[in-house]
Backbone:
C-alpha cells in the first residue's frame, strides 16, 4: 500500500507540472524526471551507514551515488561534502527535480544529502532512526531549520575534471533540463 501511495504521488507530480514537459523522451541523456522516478522506486530501501546498494542498505550519500550511477552513469563520491564540492550552487527557488539538497544534521555543513523531487519534496536515505529511504518535505520544521543549500549536477564533467576520478570517468553524460 505504501509503494502504491508513492507511485500515485509520482504520477500526480509528474503529470500536473508543466515545467517538466520539456523532458525529451527520445533524448538519450537522462532527464530530471527519470532521476526522480528511479529514486522514488527505492522508497522503503533499508538505511545502512556506509552502504550504497539497495539490496544491502544505503546511507544518504550512498543513495544519491547509486541513483546517479544507475540513471546517468555518473561516478559520484560517497560523501555529502564531496558531492557539494563537485556541483554548482543554486538558490532554493531554482530547485528542479534531480537537484541535490543538503542539510547540516551532524554539527557539520553538508552532512546529509537528498534528491529534490519537486513541489518542495525530496527523497533521501534517512538516518538509522527512521531506517529507510523516504520522501520528506523541505518545509518540515526539522529539514527547514537544517537546510544547508542546493546544488546542481548539470555538467559533472567539468566538476569532476579537478578530482582524481576524472581520468576514470571520461564522456560522462549531462543531465537534460
Residues:
Amino acid at each position: 500500500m505504501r509503494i502504491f501511495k508513492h507511485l500515485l504521488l509520482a504520477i500526480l507530480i509528474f503529470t500536473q507540472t508543466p515545467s517538466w514537459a520539456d523532458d525529451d523522451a527520445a533524448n538519450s541523456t537522462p532527464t530530471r524526471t527519470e532521476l526522480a522516478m528511479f529514486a522514488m522506486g527505492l522508497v522503503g530501501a533499508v538505511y545502512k551507514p556506509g552502504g550504497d546498494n539497495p539490496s544491502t542498505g544505503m546511507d544518504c550519500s550512498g543513495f544519491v551515488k547509486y541513483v546517479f550511477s544507475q540513471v546517468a552513469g555518473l561516478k559520484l563520491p560517497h560523501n555529502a561534502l564531496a558531492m557539494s564540492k563537485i556541483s554548482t550552487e543554486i538558490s532554493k527557488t531554482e530547485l528542479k527535480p534531480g537537484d541535490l539538497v543538503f542539510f547540516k544534521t551532524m554539527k557539520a555543513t553538508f552532512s546529509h544529502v537528498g534528491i529534490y523531487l519537486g513541489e518542495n519534496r525530496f527523497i533521501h536515505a534517512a538516518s538509522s532512526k527512521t531506517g529507510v529511504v523516504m520522501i520528506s518535505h523541505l518545509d518540515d520544521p526539522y529539514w527547514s531549520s537544517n537546510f544547508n543549500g542546493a546544488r546542481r549536477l548539470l555538467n559533472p564533467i567539468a566538476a569532476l575534471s579537478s578530482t582524481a576520478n576524472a581520468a576514470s570517468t571520461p564522456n560522462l553524460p549531462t543531465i537534460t533540463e
